[in-house]
Amino acid sequence: MEVYHLSYPHHLFENEHNNAYSLAIGFFDGVHRGHQEVIKKALEKGKELHIKTAVMTFDPHPSLVLGGSKEQVFYITPLEQKIEILKELEVDAVFVVRFTSDFAKLTPKQFVDSFIKHTNVKHVTAGFDFSFGAFGKGTMKEMENLAAGDYTVSVVDKQQLTGEKISSTRIRAELKIGNLEEVKELLGRPFKLTGVVIHGDKRGRTIDFPTANVQPTEGQYTPATGVYAVKIRVQETWYEGVCNVGFKPTFNNPDAKKLSIEVHIINFDQSIYGEEVVVHWYKRIRSEQKFNGIDELKEQIGKDKLVAIDYFNQI
Asked: What residues does the Riboflavin kinase domain cover (predicted)?
C-alpha cells in the first residue's frame, strides 16, 4: 500500500504510474463500521472498474485549524494507527491531505479540481453527510455536479447499530463512560491503545500484582477511569490482563491528578521496560475506588483478575 502526503498548494499528487482510482473519502477517525462500509463500496467499485482503490483522509483534525477546539484533540485512531487499519482493509493507496488554513479556504470546485481530478479519481464514494470546501459548503450532490464526466459518485447511507447512527462522536461518548463492549461493536474490533512501558512506583510487586505502566502514544483517546479486562501484546505475543486507568486513590493524594494506565498481565513475569505494547480493551469491570488498606486492595484485584479470566474464557 502506498501512502501519499498531499498539501495545498505546493505538494499535490504526481501520479507517476498514471493509476486511476476508486476513492473513499472522509476523515475516518476510528475507521468504524460505518467508515468500513464506505471503504468496502469503494473497493467493490474499484474491482468493477478494474482500477486501484484509494482512501483520502485529512490531518490534523479540522477543529485544530478552524479554531473550534481550544483543547488538545484526542483521536480514536491516530494517523499511524489509521493507516495500519486501512492497510488491513487492503486498499491500494492512502492520500493524507494536510488540513491547513489555505486548504480550508478552498471552494468546493477548487477542492475537486486539485484533489479529485488531479489525482486521476474515476469514482468517489463517501458517506451521506460528507462535506468539503470552505465552511463545508460542498455536499455529495455538488460533488456529483462538479464531475463534468470525469468521475462518478456513490453515496453510502447512514449506518446504524441498535437504531442509532454509527459515528465517531458516539464512540467517543462510549469511551468517556468506559462502555468498551459497545465500542467494540461500533468499531467492529476492540478499541486499541499503543504505548511504551515505563517505570512506575513499582508498588504492584509489593502486593503480588506487578503491573506494566503504559505511557500512551500522544494524541490517543484514553477510556474512562476504571478497571478493565484487556489483552496486551508484548513482543508479538498476546496476553490477557487487568488494566487500571486512574489516579490510584488508595495511595495517592486525591489532588495529585496524574492519570496512569497500569496492566497486570496474567501469567507473566518478565521485565519489559521500554517495550512498545498494544492494549486491546474489552470490558469495564468496575469503577476505580479507594480502599482502606493494602489487604482490601489485594483482595479486590484478585476478584478483578478472576472476572477477566472468566470473561475471556467465554468469548
From this structure: 186-313
Cα–Cα distance, 223 to 173 (Å, whole number): 10
Annotate 39-89 with DSSP letters as a single string: HHHHHHHHHHHT-EEEEEEEES-HHHHHT--SS---BSS-HHHHHHHHHHT
Domains in the chain: ranges and CATH: 2-157 (3.40.50.620), 191-314 (2.40.30.30)
| 268: its cell numbers | 507473566
The answer for residues whose C-beta is within 8 angstroms of residue 75's C-beta and 6 or more apart is 29, 61, 82, 219, 220, 221
List CB contacts of 307: < 8 A, sequence separation 6 or more: 229, 285
